[in-house]
Amino acid sequence: MNKKDIRINGERIYLVPLTVEYASEKYCSWLNDPVVNKYLDTKNATIENLQKYIKSKYEDPNCLFFGIFDKKTNKHIGNVKLEPIDFNLKTAVLGTLIGEKNYWGMGIAPEVYKYLLKYAFDELKLETITAGMYKGIVGALKAVKKVGFKIHKEFDDAYKVLLKKEDFIF
Ligand SMILES: CC(C)(COP(=O)(O)OP(=O)(O)OC[C@H]1O[C@@H](n2cnc3c(N)ncnc32)[C@H](O)[C@@H]1OP(=O)(O)O)[C@@H](O)C(=O)NCCC(=O)NCCS
């Protein structure tokens, strides 16, 4: 897989694999914003550790870590990741961060899922995608349900959701 050549187009957004030059102050500020990072592991981001993180994800053949960009302005608004990808089991785990809060609630995440998962099923030949999410994240469950994910396991504070290729709603 040559990551350099990958670009996934949606209606309002496009996705490209993140490279170190995208480790910006803005990206750091998302991760250091208590509203955005409430349910994320990272809370003390610096440009230097973001660069290291992006580099390690870019070099990992079992990870596809994309920036989400606004088509009109080319503004970097968030990230989405398939990791780990298991090409033998044909599975991957999906993770999403829309960092720009003024883009929340506009259906960006479902649009990202639509085009990313079409790529995952058609080009990467995957068959099952899972994701985990805390119940407190407003909209996260609704967003994944829009492309066909179903609740696979329910915990006190979180869900594990699963999408089989045949249930994908494009
Ligand atoms: C959770 C997240 C991925 C959802 O993405 P999104 O692009 O905002 O998703 P949608 O626009 O489809 O919103 C889903 C639903 O939640 C609602 N919603 C989203 N943000 C909302 C908010 N701040 N307040 C109230 N409702 C909200 C939407 O109206 C929509 O409901 P509807 O289908 O009835 O219209 C995104 O908001 C996000 O990245 N949040 C912060 C980071 C995070 O916690 N990520 C981990 C996610 S697993």
UniProtKB/TrEMBL annotation:
Membrane-spanning segments: none
Residue ranges constituting the N-acetyltransferase domain according to the UniProt record: 18-167
EC number: 2.3.-.-
Domain of life: Archaea
Acyltransferase among keywords: yes
Signal peptide range: none
GO molecular function ontology, one term from the record: acyltransferase activity, transferring groups other than amino-acyl groups
UniProt keyword annotations, A-Z: Acyltransferase, Transferase
InterPro entries reported in the protein's UniProt record: Acyl_CoA_acyltransferase (IPR016181), GNAT_dom (IPR000182), N-acetyltransferase (IPR051531)
Gene3D superfamilies per the UniProt record, alphabetical: 3.40.630.30
PANTHER family membership: GNAT FAMILY, PUTATIVE (AFU_ORTHOLOGUE AFUA_3G00765)-RELATED-RELATED (PTHR43792), N-ACETYLTRANSFERASE DOMAIN-CONTAINING PROTEIN (PTHR43792:SF16)
Name of the molecule in the record: GNAT family N-acetyltransferase
